Queue: 2 jobs
Job 1
Amino acid sequence: MIPDLPLAELARRYNNDETAPDWSQTLLPRWQRDGASLRSQAGGARDLAYGPKPRNRYDLFAPPGRAPDAGWPTFVFIHGGYWQELSKDDWSAIAAPFVRHGMAAAILGYTLCPENTVRGIAAEIVAAIAHLWHHAAELGVDRERLSLAGHSAGGHLTACCLSEDWTRSQLPATPFVRAAAISGIFDLEPLVPIYLNDALKLTRDEALAMSPAYRERRVQCEFIAAVGGAELPEFLRQNRLIGQRWSDVAEWEIPGLNHFTIVDQLTRDDTALFERVAEGLRI
């Protein structure tokens, strides 16, 4: 559904730099700096290839030492950037608190638009998770305890994962113990007439087909849809929408947080969002 708004106002309601204009000069450099340190120090493996394209890679961060016999409980994260910006390396810092608490974390990369399509990105994410699951034993991962989360476009892709038939990839129908979409976009139709579609190239029909709000939910793990109370109105509406369209959704609106400070909650281990996402993984 496209809200009944002038196009300029609709576009403004998806321009997250308006609510946090300095995030790329403050938060992002800190995440990149902390992530670079973690990549050089943590256990696990970097740039694991799950497909043939340059960005078909993921990083696995693990505690030092030998993995438990069953493998490390593992958090899987899908980054945002409106399907057209940033990379897995910008988000490595999110793995740090999980590693400190005896868990592994996989940060997924994918091919960006316009080189790719939204549908193509969703397929790459499925391939990445299937690779992690099928190679779990050699990677020291407990594939019975995977938790999934994504931010912004990654929130959309997380919800797409909950509408996926995982048995087609030889995984269980519900391969996650819980999932969280943070500041997710669940209805892509409003993006069709605005500037974001210059790279996405969505038709209205394809936007609706790739909108989790209009797809069947197949994965029956606990699902949290979280949004910051200081986010733009469209993100608040999108979060309510998935709660209305799908059953058993835990809707969170966290006061005072904008589109970027909310994801920063996952770089720390003293927040309710970290605790809820990690809860099912604790040894």
Job 2
Amino acid sequence: MPAYKILYVNQEITPYVEDTYLSTIGRFLPQSVQENGIDIRTFMPRYGLVSERRNQLHEVIRLSGQNIIIKDNDHPLIIKVASIPSVRMQTYFIDNEDYFYRKSILSDPKTGKFHADNDERIIFFAKGVLETVKNLGWSPDIIHCNGWITCLIPLYVKKVYMDNPLFAFSKVIYSVYNDAFQRNLNRSFATKLKSTNVPAKDAALYKGANYLSTTKLAIDYSDAAVIAHEEVLPELKDYIYESDKLHMVHPQEDFVPDYIALYERILES
């Protein structure tokens, strides 16, 4: 097996958050791929519901301290790290007191209300991940995104970081799950993207954005797509099938060989 590097960007990873379909994939896909001898790094947000004490998170001072500017507002980037000792898998956490203090992921667990600042949270998370990888000096051959909170990673890799040698040849895979929501993002979303160096014509595509449009754009800016759950919206399944993207459907059992085959196919394309 040829040597290559995979960056996993995840919305959820167990045991840091409760067991869900998405968090289970976030844990066991990177773990199994690493056990096959492939060099990986994994990232997720440090939501307020992630117990720092129980999971033994600690701040990486040399990677923290940078500010990410969104529409003229500075937001400090804090990087924390933790390991799952039994599997020797390390996770980097993107943290910020403005965006990830609350004990929830995308919506209030009591009311079900979608967080009004999710547009800025996904901008901050995408920029935070890529800036941290840049500071690590680690060049991923593949960037595999899992969960809607990662939906801007393909855009930034292809349109903002494409001239950085670390990402110039990175292939991006976007996995689509059953995580749809019924809400438009903030009306100034496109303006906020433009303020983070997203080209104006690309930022304009996000005007009036919602789950469906942001997911389609994530697919458009990716090199491959995965239908990662049987309950993915039919319109998104059709969108993937009708595109010219390399794609696969997540197998129900023994899924690692299929993903490794996908990784090798995308590196050959």
